[in-house]
Amino acid sequence: MDASEVLEESLQNMSIQDAETQVMNEQEINDLMNSVIDWGDSEGVSNEEIEADDSEDEDYVPRICIRLGGALQAPPCIDNLPVIDASETVHDIPDVEPPSVTLPTLQQPGFPDTLEVMTEDDLIGKRASITYEDCLRQLATLLVLPVQKCPYTCDVSKMECQCRPPFEVSITRRGTASIMEWTCLVGHTVWRWSSQPTLRYGMLAGDFMLASNILLSGSNYAKRD
């Protein structure tokens, strides 16, 4: 075989090898089925250091090397693989954008307004009862207000109070009624509740009914026993 035939055969082998390397892609190289595990990688390590490893030590960890694409017949060519810049983030799982969900705006529920007597039907025939203050306090202690924080807002700075429940409950007497008031740690009134509805000018219904019954019964404050 002369030199020209040898050169032609070498070129053919190189072309076949180049064709095989061009077929290689990223998935084939990264496939675990095409990877090879080498125990005791001696690259950059002398034989004396490898033999000096104490395999009887409990903390001994043998050297291990995983060569991607090592089981492929043709050597993998990484020249055509995409280059990843250092600023890019590499993820094993492709990024999937979550569906856009618009969350509703959380609003604090409002407290019910104080009952008011607008007509005589709002007062006549309504049932009433005598309530002890200790029973009201027991009920107020177990009651959870429908708020996450104090609703007070400063009129000047527009800053909101950040006090959280539980709030302090106080009970005061006003005529024949009991007024319960919830206050935060700073002293802001969170809610005020009255045991009786109110008439015009803030008069309580129970006080009005009591005075009317005394007057209509023929008695007055001047009569005494």
Automatic annotation (TrEMBL):
Top-rank taxon: Eukaryota
Protein name per UniProt: Uncharacterized protein LOC113045398 isoform X2
Lineage: Eukaryota, Metazoa, Chordata, Craniata, Vertebrata
Gene: LOC113045398
